[in-house]
Automatic annotation (TrEMBL):
InterPro entries: AMY1. It is found in: Nucleus. GO terms for molecular function: transcription coactivator activity. One of its GO terms (cellular component) is nucleus. It comes from the Eukaryota. This is c-Myc-binding protein. The keyword Nucleus applies. Its main location: nucleus.
Amino acid sequence: MMMRYKEEKEAKKEGFRKYLETSGAVDALTKVLVALYEQNDKPSSAVEFIQQKLSCPSIPEYEKLQAEFSDLQIKYNELLAAHQRTCKELEEIKSSHVLATVSTKETTDSESPKDGL
């Protein structure tokens, strides 16, 4: 019974190792760790170095990006609302222009003499 459990556990570990290798995670981590190893002046935080090399923002950077995103979302919503108002106004202007043109054309047609009459 104990032997079967160990075999299952080893098979599970091996499957996970293969997954990490085929997904490129092992290569990415190896490159980052080699870069950290080769640093003459070791960074104060190895974790932040790894995050930076893996293109992960630090917590302060993440919070800054979240705040910037919120500001941009508000500005986007304001601009979208202004755009929608402007489109509505444009449609109203077009409609009134079409009505004025039709009205002027009807007046002009009824006042112009007909040929041959």
